[in-house]
Amino acid sequence: MKTIYEKPQVFTDAITTYCGGCGHGIVGKLIAELIDELKLQENGILVWPIGCSCLSDRYYDMDNFMALHGRAPASATGIKRADPSKFVLCYQGDGDMVSEGMAEIMHAAIRSEKFSVIFINNAIYGMTGGQMAPTTMLGQVASTAPYGRETLNSGYPVQMAELMATMPGVVYSERVTVTSPANVAKCKKALKKAFELQLEGKGLSFVEVLSPCPTGWKMAATKSLDYIDEVLTQVYPLGVKKDASKEEN
Amino acid sequence: MGEKVFMQGNQAMAESAIRAGCKLFFGYPITPSSEVPEYYAKAMKDRPEENIMFVQAETEVAAFNMVAGAVSTGHRAMTATAGPGFDLGQEAMSFMSAADLPAVVVEVQRPGPGDGEILAAQGDYFSAVKGGGHGDYNNLVLAPYSVQEMCELMQESFELAEKYCNPVVLLTDATLAKMRESVVIPDYKELPKPEDITNSLTGKKGREAHKVATCGDGAVQWEEFNLRLQAKYKRIAENEVRYEAKNMDDADIILVAYGSMARVCESAMKMAREEGIKVGMIRPISLWPFPDVAFEGITGKKFLVVELSAGQMVQDVKLAVENKRDVTFFGKLGGTTPSPKVVLEQIKKLV
Ligand SMILES: Cc1ncc(C[n+]2csc(CCOP(=O)(O)OP(=O)(O)O)c2C)c(N)n1
Ligand code: SF4
Q1: CATH number for region B4-198+230-237
Q2: Is the ipTM of this complex over 0.90?
Q3: Structural domain contains residue A3
Q4: At the topology level of CATH, where does B243-350 sit?
Q5: Is residue A10 one of the residues assigned to a domain?
């Protein structure tokens, strides 16, 4: 019999705690595939946030650092500066990155830290029960915006991929999603690019993933995918926002 | 032996850290600690062969979390700050103790609360010694009282942090940080390999995966996690008590002071003895674990605790002595340090 698909080797046998239809699991699998393909298991350190992905150290059979809420880019800085020979991946949700840790991600970009960042934008706080995030859409209902987010009180959604593209220290910034097989393939391509740029010693590489949270959105899994394609992408357009990888630096 | 130089406290301490193999410094400037980052920033450029890395962090929050990341790789790393910055680092202190990370943090005390002043004080005893952050954890806290001792305890801090897999706070103050003294700078140290540091993240090549994680998984697992931490703190408490006791045998009055205040008290003790008042002194060097043993079995003597605070360490002294009615406190707030004469007056009130 011919094997057409195998579980990535870096994965342990642990079962994830993600809800059905969650985007974390899809991106998590792409990360595992790339770790195998680029042979990063023995020379990599994964830095995880606090949020629904905070048990990820159980899923990857490699060295893991579970950072404090929002501080993953600071701890990743410490790791990469201490040992630049390591592949360092910094993974964050939108509450973690854009709220609690906005200073840390901005300054990692300002300093042009030489690691890769994956940003899971699900426009809500998943882990803590569906509270409003800085990325929550205007009008979107959240447990701390029970009648929908309004600008008067809570301002505007933050476009991280565009913001990072304005930073000279960022070498690559792209926004992708995981709503279809084609989009998943594009997501993997973006992640691979980001990882390879790090391996080449370039500056911070950034990939934002629009990711479904059916539980936080109180929406069926399939509906969640439509919500991303039809609503979220209006405020968060997909595509490469910056590619300075060909420029001399 | 290393060479003898005349050097400022902060700078001597920074040089001592470099010689202890601490090549990584992450920090945010704050008086009276800024000479430490400045020293590292200069050394990084002037001494390229030593591979020194200095990063000026955006905040102390970031600096402490950078240190956490750096030490997780098995390399020595540290930060230096004063009270307001130490406050911002508390979440990371709790995390690093829980995560078994051997970080070293210098805290140069200045008077608070609030924005405060930039003079000498000892009002951050509670935040350093009692934990400051959330949950049941302890920092190892060492309090030097001379530039020489700052250099020596700096070296020891790294060794203790690695031995117990726990953060160490070197608690100094503006007077010690800014004063110049002649000091023998320690020699360069042979370092453990990053791979040999417990649980270091060096990539899982040839071994099981390592992880730095402090996320609970239900009450049973989390109680077990906590009990393991408590066993660590117990080991430290049993083995790492440090203090100095002077003129104790015939003393009627025992001064208790640490850090720069202990220097003043030493002079006051001499003056008192010249006048025939029998004064001794206990100087805690490890503030956590507190040297309870130094007070054991002493009865019928009076203790005068002197601090640059409204009375913080005095609480630990009261817990350690047989009879807490024997304990008197004298403190000064705001940034002035009482002279030996002023302390002598306090001693005389007890005669
Ligand atoms: C200092 C601190 N504040 C608040 C929290 C509580 N908290 C944990 S996760 C989280 C938000 C998670 O949302 P997000 O980053 O979007 O990740 P998701 O769960 O959606 O993947 C919050 C507020 C915390 N752990 N630490
Ligand atoms: S709450 Fe949302 S983000 Fe968290 S696991 Fe469930 S679907 Fe995923």
Answers
A1: 3.40.50.970
A2: yes
A3: no
A4: Rossmann fold (3.40.50)
A5: no
Number of domains in chain A: 1
pLDDT digits (tens, 9 = 90+) for B264-316: 999 999 999 999 999 999 999 999 999 999 999 999 999 999 999 999 999 99
Nearest-atom number in ligand 2 for the CA of A18 is: 5
Residue contact B204–A63, C-beta within 8 A: yes
Which ranges constitute the DSSP H helices of chain A? 23-37, 72-82, 94, 102-110, 151-154, 160-165, 181-199, 214-217, 221-227, 233-235
Residue that the structure tokens 């001794």 belong to: B280
Q: Which residue from A127, A178, A211, A222 has its CB within 8 A of the most atoms of ligand 2, so it is best to mutate?
A: A127
pTM: 0.98
- A81 to B55: CB separation less than 8 angstroms, yes or no: yes
Between CA A69 and CA A105 the distance in angstroms is 12
Could you tell me the pLDDT band of residue A74, with boundaries at 50, 70 and 90? very high
Q: Nearest C-alpha to atom 10 of ligand 1 is from which residue?
A: A51
CA distances from A30 to A19, A85, A184, B53 (A): 18, 23, 8, 34
> Which DSSP letter does residue B194 get?
G
Task: Report whether pLDDT(A246) > 90.
Answer: no
Q: What local confidence, expressed as pLDDT, does residue A63 receive?
A: 98
Q: Does the CB of A79 have a partner CB in chain B at under 8 Å?
A: yes
Distance from CA of B25 to the nearest CA of A (A): 9
B66 with A62: Cβ contact below 8 A: no
The pLDDT, as a whole number, for residue B331 is 98
